[in-house]
Amino acid sequence: MTFNADLSAARYQPRPQDAPPEVYAERLSVCQTCQNRRANSCRPAAQLCSVLARHPVANCPGVKWPGQESPREQPPAPTPSRAASSAAVAGVAVIIISHNYGRFLEESIESVLGQQLRPAEILVVDDASDDETRDVTDRYLARGVRYRRVEAREVAAARWAGLQATKSPLVVFLDADDVLGPDYLQTGIPLFADPEVGVVTSDLEQFGAISGRLHHPAGNIEATNWVHAGSIARRTALETAAPAFELRPGPWTHHDWLMWRAVHRQGWKFARSPGTYRYRKHPTSVSAGMVRERVSYFQEAGLGFETLTLFLALSGRDREFTRLTEFLRYQTWPKDQIRLVICDTSQNQSFGARLRKCLVNCEYSDWRYYRQSVGPPNLADHDRHDAKTHRNVQVAMPRIYSRAIREAGTEYLWIL
Prior knowledge:
Elements: H1 5-11, H2 21-33, H3 35-38, H4 49-52, H5 80-83, E1 89-98, H6 102-113, E2 119-127, H7 133-138, E3 145-150, H8 155-164, E4 170-175, E5 179-180, H9 184-188, E6 197-208, E7 212-214, E8 232-234, H10 235-240, H11 243-246, H12 255-265, E9 269-281, H13 286-293, H14 297-300, E10 308-314, H15 321-330, E11 338-344, H16 349-360, E12 366-371, H17 387-408, E13 412-415
Parallel strand pairs: 1-2, 1-4, 2-3, 6-9, 10-11, 10-13, 11-12
Antiparallel strand pairs: 4-8, 5-9, 6-7, 6-8
């Protein structure tokens, strides 16, 4: 098995928001001695070490990285019994995001002020609105509601601005057209007594154009968006998923889904409370727009931002080598979002050496090369109509693809 961590460190070119080169190189030196990496099981969070290491607050589950503070060191949030003597919940910030939702904002703010367990911070983030959002907020300044305007025109950036403008250890992102049930915080906060819980979600109660209660059972969050945008989250969990806030997916992608998947991949647990989040259904909402525009699952889930495994099984055909290198150079999926896995079944040392030389000079952030004997040499060029060849192929293919699944480590696998 060949790794390219040293190559990635040598080629590292940090962006302004990335970890400095010395931290990046030090993290990869930790990766090289990590037992999980040596056992090829270092991707429980479906991330690439060399990609994950570039983020300043990245968290590698179970490993203490340079420049990283363990999210498990933060004490659990207070339960209602601890906060009973105070008029506010110590350490909860409700961040209300509004883009031209001033007509709904008063009801949203009132639902927060009316909580049985009051939050310590209430912040309205006005994302480039040209309606009454500012005027509505001004009426609540005397009651502790704060206002901040941004010109992001993008929910991910607006949420991040709100996160940076608050300091409470627990956070709720509340869309301005939605409201919280009166016991939402009171029923959700006790679940953070478990320090491994990063997010507490609840059922949805639809109101407006459509009414009814929605129960989304817990499942595979990579496949199903069962955690709503207004779930209560631990600040540390959100910060360890900071790269998700850098994405600019556009209006037809569920940023909250990208956000929660990023949190989940960092190893945090999700819990469910009996509280209720009230979700307004109206024709000008983003979800209604998705229905009108018939948005595809690919766009809705933001799959274009995913890291995937590109798996190539190569039998040693020299005549195809130029086409292979051209494909690897010109294919359009971002190379820093690919885990390249090369399975060499050629049983040909010169072909293998040529492959490894190509990989050492490739542009991919993470690659793997291994040799696997799955049948007679040059089996791919044998006559498939021959009965013996047919049997050999039937044995070889399951061996190749069983290994491919073990090597993948990402939610999505691209096989060529």
